[in-house]
């Protein structure tokens, strides 16, 4: 290839350099820089392009041309050209984001480069390449052409550093070695030392490599600078390189880099050792066919290496920690500040490694090393951040936030890891380390709290997995630190306990379960488990404490956990006996173990004795029949000798010891006093408390206990108030307040004392003083609410609610009641539920904490009630108003149980609960609760509410009983409800309305229930019954008019007008019911004349109702029923449906109107619409009427089609499935009688069912009784005629005939039946019973053949047919059964081999299919007779279908199949 001349090349390169390099305008022109890069690539191929318009053509023609070499041009010129091209590529990298691709111009050359596989030009022409990779390739080629110049290799190295964000990549080893060689040859020791650090860093960055096919390899032309990787060799090379570096020759920044690299080298050697060990073991396991994975093998090897006593990386780890502290102290002004992120990262790595080593080692040495590593970091960071524990919380947080803003974000995750590691280290060393670390823990807690506020993510550089680990560690650290600090802060203690309950079902890392358990208990210096009320909640905490603690528990911790468990047993749901056993177990252990010092031993023994005293009080069985006084006295004796107690375990507050002694003494004295009071020994109890006051004259707790006792005796137990006793109580309470003004309870009891004496001003002052000290005091809080009636109590409520306390239930209750007053039930419900969970509201069984000895001062004596029951009652009311009835009922039930537990009658809760039960259709339960209220003569105004509610419930129960056919029970419930309502003295419109409903319900009850006499004469009895029923129902009209009169006195408001319209509609409806009763006693001809006046009266009332309320759909519907004009009735029904489209009565009435007028198609369409609205019995009855009318029309033409009669029967049955309507009963009886005749003959089962339905109708209905009696008599005669016993048959026939004759004598019946024809029917039975005569056995016929050939199915079939031919419905079961057994035997023989090709009988004769079909059909026929005799209807379809398939022309099978389908 002919290359351009050297001068020409130099001139071209000089022009490119002057035009595009070192020029600010050119530096911002990415298109021009890209084209210049293409020109340089062409120059390296021997092509010079000076004109821009010829560039792309030359590129196209130069594709595939080789590069220039030293044979064409001198090496310095090749080197210089590559350097210029590399610098152009670097410049293009800076402005690539502004580059607009030249795809159109490059399309042709690109395709040609693809075809010729010219990878260099193809990469440039695609215009999406990495410019730094291209630049590195050019620089590598330039350095290889001129290797003696350091600047060439320096350019390559700079590009590599830039690519990897100032990190020396693994591939830079050869480059650095060449630079080191040049520096050494020139005697530049400092530069050589710096390069050694870079080389060591390169060895360690094994993850920063490039692929063989990268652009730098393509443009460099070789891959000779990419070293091979062997981790162990690389780590050893890194170590030798680093340790050979002259440390003293390095600058400060490089010395810091040296320390970082030293740790990295040690860790790399450790990882290489682990990998080598794991690889050998894995290969060995593979040879032994072991299935252990490489990952598991490496984990085992790592544990073995890290658990070694000697730690080669320990010195380096401490060095990187010191480097971090030095960098933090220097701040951002230090030149080495750029190394701070790396120091943080490697300090955290060293920390995690030391923690892993400590966990794997069996001794405490690893944890001590870890503690020594952590303390300087915590002290240094707190000092740098200017944090001070003595400053307020907000100021501390502000300091940390400001410091965070000046440091890298990775400091957050490091502090989280430090917090978790320090907490874990402190726990592991807790039994042997008594060093106080409160300040360290408080700083870390503030730091991680600021981290949570400021950062949703831990660090932008962390992966999701690592980020989740850091977040989890931060959460666990916060929990543990709160436990370590929680014993000194009650608010924090409350937070820990709440978090413990919230996480009781979740697994947590050790030792959080142990710490939360101990802190939540804290029962050796204060009431134990003070934030818990149920043992169930504590049980989960105790279970969590039994998880892996990470180390064996010490003897002290075992005692603490046993005491915590024993104290928990006193909560609700615990076992007092179990608590007793645990206390005895601890006492036995204390006798044997001498590791517990004297003061702590006395304190634990006193705690156990107080616990045993409480157990005796709760009924536990203790050894030697010990008593409460004995065990409490033991506590006093033990605590007489005081020993100093140093802070121990989690409790580092110096005041905890004195608080513990005072608390145990107070509990013991209170227990003794309570025991004496329970025995009536008031004076002895007072002596005990007075002695305690004399022994400790400066003890405020003793003065308070005596003052509270005297106040309780003076106010609640003395029969007469004594001024001297009151003064004594005041004196001791004042003494307690003066001795310790920081205690709130003395001021609360003083306020109660002043309130009882009527001094409201001083009472308010004492209550206010108490609430300033303790905003949640339950005595003062309730007192200030009672006295502050002008709304000034809101500030006290706000202050109490801001506290995380277990005793602010009074505040939540007050807020809940205020919210209910303004209708904010959702907020009220939340407040009341919070109140119910508080200890001052909740009455806890087996609770012997001294916190509750003052609960008798929560209320004044005149207002005594179960406050917890009242709260749950208010909760139920909120639930009810919110429509959550089931939850409301549960709350009311709980309120009732709580009240009854204290022998109180919860009248209001019973009433509210019963009202909810009515809304949930639980009428029986509601009626019982209302009855309980009515029996209580002290229920006051609840009597009227209960009477009304009981009436509503009983009316609903009566309706249900009537639907179930229990008319007597329904009538009894109605009369009971009426009696309770009439017993009330007041006049209430709702009571009158209910009475009207109850009286009107009597129209649905059978009239026979209204007759109080015996009534032997049927007619006379019926008339008397109807008259009494009419009188009963008429009283409903009077009740409705009374309700109307009571409401007409009210103002004419919209509501009163609607109510008056409703009452007038009720009056009209009652008149319609009276009309129905009257019509049942009238003769057929006189019904219209008698009932017309009633109808007119009802129509007038409906008109009055509509004049008041024209949109009353029920009134329009009733008006349509009352008028006799069909068009007007239709208009009224349609108007009711216009007002209320889903009114079932409107559709029903208009449908009956159409049916009455014989508009059957219109009636059917109306019923179809009603089907979409509601499933009512009247809808099905109207459908039956329609079918009956259609059947009547069809029967006039032909007498064979009874299909519509069957369908009408089905409609009546559907009506009875909805409710038991009398009209449906008589309709089903009549259609059943019709369907029992026809081509199938007489059906005895249908007659029996019809007779039963008629008798049921007569028992329920007051109308159509005579007609029903006539039908019942006729059907009874037909049924009796089928009886086999002649004497019994004749008696039954005569009895039925007598009933029919009595009915036929009624003039109302003779007008619509043919009396003459009916008399003939009554002369004799309609069904004759033929006499059956047995034939002699056919000795020489079929029977003889069977004797000779018993396996012949043909003969068995012939014999069965002969016997079956003499069977009818009057035959005995034995005869039918005999024929059935013969036919079954023949069928079995014939069908046993039907799967073979030929059907063979037992005699090996080939049979035809019609013979088998005949046997099957005969069996089915005989079975049908048997089933009718047993009054059941078994399915015979399968055998009949089988017979039809074998012989389609079998008539018997066809007939039976049709009947079975019908």
Give a structural overview.
This protein is mostly helical and 1462 residues long. Helices cover 69% and strands 0% of the residues. The protein has 67 helices and no strands. Helix 52 packs antiparallel against helix 53. The chain is extended, with a radius of gyration of 52 Å. It starts with 5 loop residues before the first helix and ends with a helix.
Could you give the topology of this structure?
Blueprint: H1 6-20, H2 24-27, H3 30-43, H4 55-62, H5 75-94, H6 103-116, H7 119-126, H8 131-145, H9 150-163, H10 173-185, H11 189-204, H12 215-220, H13 231-243, H14 252-287, H15 294-306, H16 314-330, H17 340-360, H18 365-384, H19 393-406, H20 410-428, H21 438-454, H22 464-486, H23 490-502, H24 512-521, H25 535-545, H26 555-568, H27 576-592, H28 598-617, H29 628-638, H30 655-678, H31 682-695, H32 700-717, H33 723-739, H34 745-756, H35 760-773, H36 778-787, H37 794-801, H38 809-821, H39 825-837, H40 867-881, H41 885-900, H42 907-919, H43 923-935, H44 942-963, H45 967-982, H46 989-1001, H47 1018-1048, H48 1054-1079, H49 1087-1108, H50 1113-1122, H51 1126-1139, H52 1144-1156, H53 1160-1173, H54 1177-1197, H55 1203-1218, H56 1222-1235, H57 1244-1260, H58 1265-1281, H59 1286-1304, H60 1307-1310, H61 1315-1323, H62 1342-1348, H63 1353-1364, H64 1373-1391, H65 1409-1429, H66 1437-1446, H67 1451-1461
């Amino acid at each position: 290839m002919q290359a351009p001349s050297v001068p020409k090349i130099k001139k071209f390169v000089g022009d490119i350099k002057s035009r595009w390099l070192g020029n600010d305008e050119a530096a911002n022109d990415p298109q021009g820089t890209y084209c210049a890069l293409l020109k340089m690539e062409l120059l390296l191929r021997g092509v010079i392009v000076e004109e821009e318009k010829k560039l792309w053509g030359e590129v196209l023609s130069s594709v595939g041309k080789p590069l220039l070499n030293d044979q064409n041009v001198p090496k310095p010129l090749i080197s210089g050209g590559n350097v210029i091209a590399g610098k152009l590529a670097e410049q293009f990298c800076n402005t690539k984001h502004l580059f607009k691709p030249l795809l159109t111009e490059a399309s042709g050359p690109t395709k040609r480069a693809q075809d010729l596989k010219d990878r260099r030009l193809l990469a440039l022409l695609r215009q999406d390449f990495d410019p730094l990779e291209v630049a590195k390739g050019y620089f590598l080629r330039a350095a290889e052409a001129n290797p003696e110049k350091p600047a060439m290799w320096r350019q390559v190295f700079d590009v590599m550093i830039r690519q990897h964000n100032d990190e020396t990549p693994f591939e830079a080893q050869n480059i650095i070695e060449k630079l080191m060689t040049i520096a050494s040859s020139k005697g530049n020791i400092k530069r050589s030392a710096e390069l050694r650090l870079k080389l060591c860093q390169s060895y360690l960055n094994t993850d920063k490599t490039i692929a063989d096919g990268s652009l730098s390899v393509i443009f460099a032309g070789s891959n000779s600078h990419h070293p091979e990787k062997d981790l162990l060799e690389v780590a050893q090379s890194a170590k030798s390189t680093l340790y050979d570096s002259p440390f003293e020759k390095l600058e400060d920044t490089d010395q810091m880099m040296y320390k970082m690299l030293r740790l990295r080298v040690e860790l790399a050697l450790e990882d290489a050792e682990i990998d080598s060990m794991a690889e050998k073991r894995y290969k060995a396991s593979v040879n032994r066919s072991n299935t252990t994975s490489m990952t598991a093998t490496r984990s085992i090897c790592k544990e073995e290496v890290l658990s070694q006593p000697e730690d080669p990386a320990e010195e380096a780890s401490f060095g990187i920690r010191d480097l971090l502290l030095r960098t933090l102290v220097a701040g951002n002004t230090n030149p080495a500040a750029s190394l701070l992120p790396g120091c943080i990262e490697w300090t955290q790595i060293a920390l995690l490694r030391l923690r892993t080593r400590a966990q794997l080692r069996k001794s405490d040495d690893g944890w001590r090393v870890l503690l020594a590593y952590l303390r300087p970091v915590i002290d240094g960071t707190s000092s740098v951040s200017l944090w001070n524990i003595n400053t307020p919380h907000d100021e501390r947080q502000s300091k940390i936030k400001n410091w965070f803003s000046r440091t890298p974000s990775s400091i957050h995750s490091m502090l989280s890891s430090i917090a978790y590691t320090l907490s874990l280290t402190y726990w592991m060393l807790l039994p042997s380390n008594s060093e106080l670390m409160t300040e360290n823990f408080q700083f870390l807690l503030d730091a991680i709290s600021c981290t949570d506020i400021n950062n949703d993510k831990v660090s932008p550089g962390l992966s999701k997995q690592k980020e989740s680990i850091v977040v989890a560690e931060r959460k666990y650290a916060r929990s543990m630190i709160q436990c370590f600090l929680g014993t000194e802060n009650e608010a924090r203690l409350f937070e820990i306990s709440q978090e413990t309950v919230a996480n009781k079902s979740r697994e947590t890392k050790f030792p959080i379960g142990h710490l939360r358990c101990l802190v939540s208990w804290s029962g050796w210096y204060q009431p134990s488990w003070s934030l818990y009320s149920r043992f169930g909640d504590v049980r989960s905490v105790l279970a969590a404490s039994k998880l892996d603690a990470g180390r064996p528990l010490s003897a002290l911790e075992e005692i603490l956990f046993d005491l915590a468990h024993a104290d928990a047993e006193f909560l609700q749901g615990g076992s007092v006996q179990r608590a007793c056993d645990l206390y005895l177990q601890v006492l036995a252990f204390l006798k044997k173990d001498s590791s517990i010092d004297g003061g702590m031993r006395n304190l634990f023994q006193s705690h156990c004795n107080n616990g045993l005293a409480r157990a005796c009080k709760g009924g536990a069985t203790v050894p030697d029949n010990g008593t409460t006084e004995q065990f409490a006295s033991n506590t006093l004796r033990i605590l007489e000798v005081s020993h100093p107690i140093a802070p121990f375990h989690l409790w580092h507050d110096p005041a905890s010891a004195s608080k513990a002694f005072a608390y145990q003494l107070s509990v013991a004295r209170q227990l003794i006093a309570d025991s004496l009071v329970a025995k009536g020994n008031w004076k002895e109890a007072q002596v005990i408390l007075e002695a305690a006051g004399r022994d400790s004259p400066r003890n405020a707790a003793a003065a308070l206990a005596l003052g509270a006792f005297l106040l309780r005796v003076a106010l609640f137990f003395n029969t007469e108030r004594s001024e001297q006793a009151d003064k004594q109580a005041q004196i001791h309470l004042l003494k307690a307040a003066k001795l310790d003004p920081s205690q709130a309870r003395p001021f609360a009891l003083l306020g109660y004392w002043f309130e009882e004496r009527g001094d409201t001003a001083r009472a308010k002052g004492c209550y206010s003083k108490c609430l300033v000290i303790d905003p949640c005091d339950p005595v003062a809080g309730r007192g200030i609410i009672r006295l502050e009636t002008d709304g000034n109590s809101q500030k006290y409520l706000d202050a109490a609610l801001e506290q995380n306390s277990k005793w602010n239930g009074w505040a939540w209750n007050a807020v809940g009641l205020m919210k209910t007053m303004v209708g904010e039930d959702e907020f009220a419900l939340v407040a009341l539920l919070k109140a119910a969970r508080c200890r001052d509201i909740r009455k806890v069984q087996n609770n012997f904490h001294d916190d509750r000895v003052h609960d008798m001062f929560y209320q004044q004596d005149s207002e005594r009630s179960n406050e917890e029951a009242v709260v749950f009652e208010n909760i139920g009311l909120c639930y009810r108003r919110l429509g959550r009835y089931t939850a409301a009922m549960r709350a009311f039930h709980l309120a009732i149980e709580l009240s009854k537990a204290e022998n109180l009658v919860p009248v209001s809760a019973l009433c509210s609960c019963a009202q909810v039960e009515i809304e949930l259709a639980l009428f029986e339960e509601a009626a019982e609760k209302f009855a309980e209220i009515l029996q209580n003569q002290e229920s006051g105004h609840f009597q009227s509410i209960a009477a009304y509610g009981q009436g509503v419930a009983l009316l609903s129960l009566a309706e249900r009983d009537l639907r179930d056919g229990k008319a007597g029970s329904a009538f009894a419930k109605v009369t009971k409800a009426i009696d309770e309502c009439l017993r009330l003295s007041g006049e209430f419109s709702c009571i009158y309305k209910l009475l009207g409903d109850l009286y009107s319900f009597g129209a649905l009850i059978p009239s026979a229930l209204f007759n109080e006499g015996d009534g032997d004469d049927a007619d006379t009895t019926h008339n008397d019954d109807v008259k009494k029923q009419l009188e009963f129902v008429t009283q409903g009209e009077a009740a409705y008019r009374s309700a109307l009169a009571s409401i007409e006195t009210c103002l004419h408001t919209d509501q009163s007008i609607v109510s008056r319209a409703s009452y007038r509609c009720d009056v009209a409806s009652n008149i319609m019911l009276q009309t129905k009763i009257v019509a049942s006693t009238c003769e057929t001809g006189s019904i219209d004349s008698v009932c017309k006046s009633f109808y007119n009266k009802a129509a007038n009332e409906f008109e009055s109702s509509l004049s008041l309320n024209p949109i009353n759909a029920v009134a329009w519907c009733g008006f349509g029923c009352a008028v006799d004009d069909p068009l007007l009735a239709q208009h009224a029904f349609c108007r009711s449906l216009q007002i209320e489209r889903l009114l079932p009565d409107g559709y029903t009435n208009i449908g009956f109107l159409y049916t009455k007028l014989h508009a059957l198609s219109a009636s059917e369409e109306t019923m179809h619409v009603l089907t979409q609205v509601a499933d009512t019995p009247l809808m099905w009855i109207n459908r039956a009427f329609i079918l009956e009318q259609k059947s009547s029309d069809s029967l006039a033409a032909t007498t064979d089609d009874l299909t519509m009669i069957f369908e009408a029967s089905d409609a009546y049955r559907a009506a009875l499935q909805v409710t038991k309507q009398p009209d449906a009963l008589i309709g089903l009886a009549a259609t059943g009688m019709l369907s029992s005749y026809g081509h199938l003959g007489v059906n005895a089962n249908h007659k029996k069912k019809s007779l039963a339905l008629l008798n049921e109708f007569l028992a329920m209905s007051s109308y159509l009784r005579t007609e029903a009696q006539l039908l019942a008599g006729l059907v009874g005669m037909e049924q009796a005629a089928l009886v086999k016993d002649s004497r019994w048959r004749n008696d039954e026939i005569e009895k039925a005939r007598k009933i029919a004759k009595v009915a036929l004598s009624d003039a109302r019946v003779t007008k619509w039946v043919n009396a003459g024809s009916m008399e003939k029917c009554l002369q004799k039975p309609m069904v004759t019973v033929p006499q059956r005569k047995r034939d002699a056995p056919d000795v020489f016929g079929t029977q003889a053949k069977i004797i000779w050939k018993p396996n012949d199915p043909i003969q068995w079939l012939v014999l069965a047919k002969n016997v079956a031919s003499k069977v009818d419905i009057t035959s005995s079961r034995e005869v039918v059964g005999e024929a059935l057994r013969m036919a079954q035997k023949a069928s079995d023989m014939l069908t046993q081999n039907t799967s073979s090709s030929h059907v063979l009988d037992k005699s090996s004769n080939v049979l035809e299919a019609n013979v088998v079909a005949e046997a099957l059909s005969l069996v089915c026929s005989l079975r049908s007779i048997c089933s009718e005799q047993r009054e059941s209807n078994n399915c015979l379809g399968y055998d009949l279908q089988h017979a039809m398939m074998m012989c389609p022309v079998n008539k018997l099978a066809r007939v039976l199949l049709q009947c079975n389908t019908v």
